[in-house]
Amino acid sequence: MVSGKPSNLKSFKSNKNFNFILILLCLTLVFLGKLDLIAIRNIKAFLSDFLAPVTFALNKPVKEIAGVFEDVKSAGSLREENIRLKSEVRKLKVINSKASSQELELLELRQLLKVLPERKNKIITGRAITAPGGIFANTVLINAGEDYGIKVGQPAISSLGLVGYVVNVSLKTSRILLLIDINSMIPVYLTNSNWPAVVQGQSGNLLKIKFLSSKAEPIDGEVVQTSGHGGRLPSGINVGKIVKSFSGKFYVKPIVDFHRLTFISIITNKTFQPLSLKTFDGFAPLQKPESSINLKGLNLSGKRVIESPED
Amino acid sequence: MIKDNKNFYNLYKFSITILFFVFLLCILNFQKSLSFFSMFEISTPSLISIVIYLCIVRFNVNPSNMILFFTGFLHDIMIGNNLGTTSIFLLLFKYFTENMILEKINKKNQEEWIYFTIIFIFSFGIVFLFNLIISFSLIELSPIFFHIGITLILYPIIKTSINFFSFVFRLIKS
């Protein structure tokens, strides 16, 4: 109980023993937690579900105040921001027009080469209810759990790229281990040179590159994406960019700002959907191929034919 | 009549304990939510250690080991830390603070900050080493240094603010 200053040495000594017993209990708890026992995982899930509203309520005022501060700070640079955004919109318009013409071409080439159809992902988006960061743990709790089909190991993304993956799920909430956490390891590849590697968090701002071939020559600013090796994460999700340190060592700077996370999407169980022009929902509207265009190949009699997408 | 009632006294003590527990939990949550501010993006200060130290040294309120254990335990669940890590830190911090007070009863007021520094670094160092052992890899050191530095800077600021408010309060009262 809350008591006054320890008045006599005797009570302090008994208190001291109790203190040591509790420290030993904590050490046992740490090791049990590391063993990842199902019972402990369930208790953690239940308690985090139970405490989620409390955490949200306690975090909300601070988050709002921080938001106000950020707004005031950014108000000074509105003009520069506006100019930057305008130029960015111009660039994106050009990219968009190119992408929409290439998308149809890509789809046709995929059919021509009989590339296995991609599986369509189901995405669930939840709101982050805790602040990320911490010294020894970098996790975020979101308000979507088992009842939305979220399972342990599923990848979490934001509009920019990979955030992390689910490590604990309860009925109403899920805990996401951020990329920057020391326990996080993600198989990636360097997009320019195609070299595979693994990035590991360091509980800081940068990710360590591991298992990269000595022949690989990373370029400063090169984009790093998930490789999909191991089958746990889908390939092609943006992770970050290569940065070179003063010592000449290469690191990956995550593309996601983990302190500004509000909504996080979880890529839940994939539902198989065969590729067809009707069901393909690309980012640009697709044109239906005209029957007169014969680019798909020749049949046995030497005549050009259009292969149906279902083939 | 009420004072003689043992049950009432126990209930009073129990409610004080619960209130203190809730207070510590709120402080821990506030400490964590400070990371929403761009200033504390790297790491947040350990407000809980400042509060516990001030409670023991200044206000003669000695938080029980059980309160610290459960506060740390719940905090670990809330932030997804290894279970028991925060509890170890809080218990060690309390142990070192009590030990120092008993050993140096005639302490000078100016030495308080130095004692806080020693106690904080010592307890944090032990927890850090322990985490190093269980995770088998070295984490980036800049957040650690920031955490220690900002906590040590905040201690005299919070203490001076408390002194100032108590001075103003006494002035208004008189």
Map the helices and strands.
The complex is a heterodimer of chains A (311) and B (174).
Chain A: H1 9-35, H2 38-75, H3 78-112, E1 120-127, E2 139-142, E3 155-157, E4 162-169, E5 174-178, E6 185-190, E7 196-201, E8 207-210, E9 223-226, E10 238-244, E11 250-254, E12 263-271
Antiparallel strand pairs in A: 1-12, 2-5, 3-4, 3-12, 4-5, 6-7, 6-9, 7-8, 8-11, 9-10, 10-11
Chain B: H1 6-33, H2 47-57, H3 65-79, H4 85-103, H5 112-135, H6 142-173
Helix pairs in contact in B: 1-3, 2-4, 3-4, 4-5, 5-6
Descriptive key words:
heterodimer; A: about 300 residues; alpha+beta; 6-stranded antiparallel β-barrel; 3 helices; about 30% helix; B: about 170 residues; mainly alpha; about 0% strand; globular
Structure explained in plain terms:
The complex is a heterodimer of chains A (311) and B (174). Chain A is α+β, with helices and mostly antiparallel strands and 311 residues long. Chain A has helices at residues 9-35, 38-75, 78-112; strands spanning 120-127, 139-142, 155-157, 162-169, 174-178, 185-190, 196-201, 207-210, 223-226, 238-244, 250-254, 263-271. The longest helix of chain A has 38 residues, at 38-75. Chain A is globular and about 80 Å long. Chain B has one domain (2-173). Chain B is globular and about 55 Å long. The interface between A and B is large, with 63 and 62 residues.
